[in-house]
Specification:
267 residues; alpha+beta; Sufe protein. Chain: A; 2 domains; five-stranded antiparallel beta sheet; three-stranded antiparallel beta sheet
Length: 267
């Protein structure tokens, strides 16, 4: 009995000493690890903004991002984003050019299954995003659908943030409704999940109605845009209405479809 008590006491002492030792090591190495993580993130941000001579870090609502400058001109941006994969958080930095297209995606950390979900951090997958205007159209990896969809979702979220907050993207001349002949026009734009087809009725230089004829968007995400954007066009009597937060791609797809429907009338 005494031997058992001595053994237990010895184990307790060993565990206590080991615990103190680990705490000391953690306390001494944590600042170094944290500093290295900051440097790695900054280097990733610089690497995904081609042509940037200077990179300025900013934060809005807890969202960290960087703006790339060449002289006084904005040449692009980088957004840090976190998606939830099969094995846990996937931390990424997403680069965009001044037109809102994806320049590069760098994965900072992930815990996906080795040889399966971990394939999403390889260049063979991340390279699919480069130069893409709609990252939602990127093909997933067979056998790693959860992980690849998580990465795609993170890239989409980063791009939506950059477009909404930083105003990246191409500006186009507004549609002049006054010169649109009376009639019903159809057009197609690119949504997050594929083509969006619309029908637009114009009478007396005014938009009478905008109807969605075809779309494959996710209802829980795109619903507010599918309903709100057409109504906003009728209420405000213009095509270039504000996008719906959280459904930027769907919003832009509807706007693009209406623009394409009326584009031939602007000559």
């Amino acid at each position: 009995m005494k031997e058992m008590a001595k053994l237990s006491l010895t184990l307790m002492i060993v565990c206590a000493v080991a615990g103190v030792g680990l705490a000391i090591v953690y306390a001494s190495t944590k600042p170094i690890i944290d500093q290295r993580a900051i440097e790695d993130t900054l280097n990733a941000a610089k690497s995904v903004i081609p042509g940037a001579v200077r990179v300025e870090e900013k934060s809005e609502g807890g969202q960290v991002y960087w703006i790339g400058y060449k002289g006084s001109d904005v040449v692009g941006a980088a957004v840090k984003t976190v998606a939830t994969g099969y094995g846990g958080p996937i931390e990424m930095v997403v680069g965009l050019d001044s037109a809102g297209k994806i320049t590069k995606v760098v994965v900072l950390s992930m815990s996906e299954t080795a040889g399966i979900g971990s394939k999403t951090k390889e260049e063979s997958f991340l390279g699919r995003f480069e130069g893409v205007e709609n990252p939602g159209s990127v093909d997933i990896i067979t056998g790693a659908s959860i992980s690849s969809r998580a990465v795609i979702g993170g890239v989409v979220a980063a791009q939506e943030f950059a477009m909404e907050v930083l105003g990246l993207g191409e500006s186009k001349a507004p549609i002049n409704l006054a010169i649109v002949p009376d009639g019903t026009y159809e057009g197609t734009g690119e949504g997050l999940m594929g083509p969006i087809k619309v029908s637009v009725v114009v009478t007396g230089g005014k938009i009478e109605s905008v109807k969605i004829l075809q779309q494959d968007e996710t209802p829980s995400i795109a619903g507010p845009a599918l309903k709100g954007i057409p109504q906003a066009m009728v209420d405000e009597q213009k095509v270039e209405v504000d996008t719906v937060s959280g459904a930027t791609f769907t919003s832009k797809g509807i706007i693009e479809a209406v623009r394409n429907a009326l584009a031939g009338t602007q000559q």
